Structures are given as structure tokens and as C-alpha cells.
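Quick start: read one record
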Amino acid sequence: MENEEKFRKLMCSYFNTIKTANNKDENYIAQVKFSSYYELGCTINDMLKLCILGLENNVHKISETDRTTAINLPLILEVVHQLFPMNEFEFLDEIDTMFLKEH
């Protein structure tokens, strides 16, 4: 019992990158921290540029045996999609409608 508790504490101190989402599909949440919306936007922009470069250079067609240089473009695009702050853009659209389009 004592070793089990030590092992549990050890796991808690190392396994903290993702958290369970507490839902039925067993998803996990990884928190990404940015100092500002501008930094978030720059990160999303850079990830999209990486995908464009990868597609232009046919990186997605690298042979299955050469996994060390392969870039997983669908995974990068999925992360970009999850990072994109749609709620904030909806908020900005509401502000635009309420205040800026009146004049």
C-alpha cells in the first residue's frame, strides 16, 4: 500500500501536461499559455505558414520509412484549429455591430 501511494504521488508530479476533460469520450485537455492574443495570433500564423511550406514542398508525401523528417500536417492543422479563438472573434464581431457599424 505504501509503494502504491508513493507511485501515485510520483505520477502526479510528472504526468501533468494533459488533464482529463471529464467527459464520456475520454478526451484530454492540454493548456497552452500565451502572454497576449497577439502572441496567440502569431503562433497560429506561424503554424499555418509551416503547413503551407510543407504542402508546397510535398512534405506529406515523404515515404513511410523516413518518419524522422515527416511533418504531420493534419495534426498541425488540428492544433491550429483548436487554438483559433473563435469566441473572441465572435465577441469582436458583436462589438463591431454594436458600436462601430452605428456610425
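The beta strands are 18-20, 28-30.
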